UniProtKB/TrEMBL annotation, chain A:
Organism: Paracoccus sphaerophysae
InterPro entries in the record: DUF2160_TM
TM annotation in the entry: 53-71, 92-109
Keywords assigned by UniProt, alphabetized: Membrane, Transmembrane, Transmembrane helix
Pfam family, one: DUF2160
Name recorded for this polypeptide: Glycerol-3-phosphate ABC transporter
Domain of life (superkingdom): Bacteria
TrEMBL record, chain B:
GO cellular-component term (any): plasma membrane
The ABC transmembrane type-1 domain, residue ranges: 66-277
Pfam families: BPD_transp_1
Annotated signal peptide: none
Name of the protein this chain belongs to: ABC transporter permease
Transmembrane segments: 12-36, 70-89, 95-116, 151-175, 196-218, 259-280
Organism: Paracoccus sphaerophysae
Membrane topology of the entry: Multi-pass membrane protein
């Protein structure tokens, strides 16, 4: 059973890597230089760009990884500094939701550069997984 | 608490996820894509980074709409939840009158939003509406078209009329599930009416109350049709709530980028508040 699950997740991980490779390969190039912010499907459905596709790829990869962890190493809920019972999945949700607000606050208060908010979010996520 | 949760039941949600993907997830992903790009039409998009978020977060117009929205939801919850509980407590428990009450309570819920708006638009008119004429005859200077306070009062009364029954019906269902033994025990202990409510009825209703608060909060925070039909967001911008402002930006002005950034912030606020409500109320339930 465990072996079948692990094989399934290994296949899923390979598929995810394949998707990432495919996304990188369709990034538009002009004069041999890649335009990482250009349209992946000009005039097409959903107006995809590489950064937004990567954003969803990371979310999907996190969900996959956490699902695999939950099956391989089930964890009882624990109470942290918020006083609420949380599992790993809850902590991931709190990290992602909080990160969204941290990034919004960073942009709203004129923070620069743009990735500053992302850096704070990573520290916040680590803190959530350690103490919440 | 020391037992790991079995999450296997989530697999059963997969078919629903597929349906929700087409009605919610894919449109939401598209909104994220739009929020970082600009378009001049013809389905051609250009990278714009986080500029739309800067514009939306710095917009006085949107901040004012957010303030109005929060005020509206707070007023709605403060009226509808206690009123719904009060109505449920006073409804007959069984027999003909119980059935009649249930049908009467369900009636407003069956009316579509735009029809509710139209009903109140006519009802409140000073020239032909029953409410408007009656208030004018009593000497009140009531006109929801010109006066912001009158417009607010009309929208709030309309929402209370439309949705209090939902809270009442949910609470009524919660009350009906309490076995008679609890009340008998309370009578033996000579518990006061307040004690019966506080220690028997309220804890037993907490589950349905959580659903009622969440539903009413989300619905009132996203309210669009009723105020749009009744006042069109006016007078001036007095009743322009977030969704009305959003539709003006997205469809009226066809500013897809700012509208998408605005939608995402709107979505995150609703997600955060719903999560806080849910967490706090389930934590309370565990301690009761």
């Amino acid at each position: 059973m465990t072996r079948a699950v692990n094989t399934g997740f290994a296949v899923a991980a390979l598929a995810m890597l394949g998707v990432l490779g495919w996304l990188v390969s369709i990034v538009p190039a002009e004069d041999g230089e890649r335009d990482w912010f250009g349209s992946l499907n000009p005039g097409g459905w959903m107006a995809w760009t590489f950064p937004t596709a990567l954003f969803y790829w990371i979310i999907a990869a996190l969900l996959l990884a956490f699902t695999w962890l939950a099956i391989r190493d089930p964890e009882p809920p624990r109470r942290g500094i918020l006083g609420i019972a949380t599992t790993r999945g809850d902590r991931l949700f709190i990290s992602l939701l909080g990160s969204a607000f941290i990034n919004l606050a960073w942009v709203g208060f004129g923070g620069s550069p743009d990735w500053g908010g992302l850096a704070i979010s990573c520290i916040y996520a680590l803190a959530v997984f350690r103490w919440v | 608490m020391d037992k790991p949760l079995n999450n296997r039941a989530w697999l059963l949600v997969l078919p629903v996820l597929l349906l929700v993907a087409f009605s919610a997830v894919i449109p939401l992903m598209t909104v994220v894509n739009y929020s970082v790009q600009d378009t001049f039409g013809n389905n051609q998009f250009f990278w714009n980074g986080l500029d739309w978020f800067r514009e939306v977060l710095g917009s006085d117009r949107i901040r004012a709409a957010l303030g109005r929205q929060i005020l509206f939801s707070a007023i709605i919850l403060a009226i509808e939840i206690p009123l719904g509980i009060f109505v449920a407590l006073n409804m007959p428990k069984r027999g003909f009158w119980a059935s009649l009450c249930l049908v009467l309570m369900a009636l407003p819920l069956l009316i579509p939003w735009n029809v509710v708006g139209t009903i109140w638009q006519v009802f409140g008119r000073v020239d032909i509406g029953l409410l408007g004429r009656a208030l004018a005859a009593m000497g009140f200077d009531y006109n929801y078209v010109n006066d912001p306070v009158d417009a607010w009062v009309t929208i709030i009364v309309m929402d209370v009329w439309h949705w209090t029954s939902l809270v009442a019906l949910l609470c009524y269902a919660g009350l009906q599930s309490i076995p008679d033994a609890y009340y008998q025990a309370a009578r033996i202990d000579q518990a006061s009416r307040w004690s019966v409510f506080r220690y028997i009825e309220l804890p037993k209703m907490s589950g349905v109350l959580l659903i009622a608060v969440l539903l009413r909060f989300m619905d009132s925070f996203m309210i669009y049709t009723e105020p749009f039909v009744l006042t069109g967001g006016g007078p001036g911008n007095a009743t322009t709530f977030l969704s009305i402002d959003l539709v003006k930006t997205a469809i009226g002005q066809f500013d897809l980028g700012p509208a998408a950034a605005f939608s995402l912030i709107y979505f995150l606020v609703i997600l955060l508040i719903s999560w806080v409500f849910y967490t706090v109320m389930t934590a309370q339930k565990e301690t009761l």
